[in-house]
Amino acid sequence: MLIKELGEFGLIDRLNSLVVGQRSGPDNGAPFSFRLTVDTGDDTAAWKTGVATELLTTDTVVEGVHFTRSTTPWRDLGWKSLASNISDIAAMGGLPLYALVTLGLSPEAKVEEVDALYAGMLEIGNQYGVAIVGGDVVSSSVAFITVCLTGLHPGQPMLRSAARIGDQIAVTGYLGGSGGGLRLMLEQLEASAEAAEYLKQCHRRPQPAIAEGRALTEAGVAAAMDVSDGLAGDLAKLCRSSGVSARLYADRIPVHPLLRQTFPEGYLDLALSGGEDYLLLFTANAETVGKVMPGLSEGASVVGEIIAGDPGRVTIVDHAGVEKELNSAGWDHFG
Do 167 and 116 lie in a common domain? Predict the structure, then answer.
């Protein structure tokens, strides 16, 4: 079987089964009261240290797959490569701590480009309290950046597997801006100066929802994840982990007026599948959602509900009131 036949998510499931099913070595953390509480398959892994829960995540961006130099300047690339990891910590309701950075660079790369890359990482790191504490540099014909980030949660992290039938589904802000910015640049489309600036910033400089994640977990929200591959795909992952289905409502999906202005026919598709918005998707009962929503960012909205059904199935009620199933596979690197 070829990887492209299995697909990215099938491959991830296979690897998860392998590493959990064949894990038989000594538990070196046990004598120090370390206890694994979130295994492979969520936004981060997590383990209790006796005082708090530590979080660990990693992400890689590759030139030509995740970014191009024409759409993402080096300084913005540094910001974004760390932002995606910070967003994973936010999805658990945690605070980010320490980062290791591995760079794959051509010997022909300019030192000034690396300086700009690190300037972007240091800028977002200083904003969110992340210290870069080491890493590695390797020669590569294709530029890539891999970040490994630790985090901390004082109690029980939010999980993809904790959604329950009857929960409301909500997001912490506007969707589709990053995808709209990328499309605007790749297709060299016309837009107002205000819209172009907003959409490009959404794509190049996402703001991870750390404060929102802390607010959610403190309010008792148990189920969450970040929106990195698009609302439809990420909601399907959450539902699959929780063994439930979901129903969305098109007229409740929050999109910024500048996205709607620029893409009057395509804004909903961008909101559902554009990806890289790095806000949070969460589910909870109506009382908890009602308590937390007033303190969230502009655009935060209740967009649907968790229902019984095939795990991972997501439907949407369109503007005409017709319910249809969404293609909820999300971004697949091998699809």
Answer: no
> How far is 98 from 202, CA to CA, in rounded Å?
25
Q: Which one, of 262, 193, 239, 205, lies nearest residue 80 by Cα? A: 205
Examine residue 316 and state whether it is found in any structural domain, yes or no.
Answer: yes
Report, in angstroms and rounded to the nearest whole number, the Rg of the chain calculated over CA atoms. Answer: 20
Query: Residues 72, 94: one domain?
Result: yes
CA distance 76 to 231: 24
> What global pTM score does this model have?
0.88
Same domain, 131 and 220: no
234 plus 185 within the same structural domain: yes
- 12: in domain: no
In this structure, what CATH number is given to the domain that contains residue 76?
3.30.1330.10
Q: How far is CA 136 from the centre of its chain?
A: 24
Q: Residue 52: which domain range?
A: 35-153
Write out the chain's pLDDT in tens, 335 residues.
Answer: 786 787 767 777 887 777 677 767 677 677 767 778 888 878 788 888 878 899 999 999 999 888 888 899 999 999 999 999 999 999 999 999 999 999 898 888 888 998 999 999 999 999 999 989 888 888 899 999 999 999 999 999 999 999 999 999 999 999 999 999 999 999 999 999 999 999 999 999 999 999 999 999 999 999 999 999 999 999 999 999 999 999 999 999 999 999 999 999 999 999 999 999 999 999 999 999 999 999 999 999 999 999 999 999 999 999 999 999 997 654 444 34
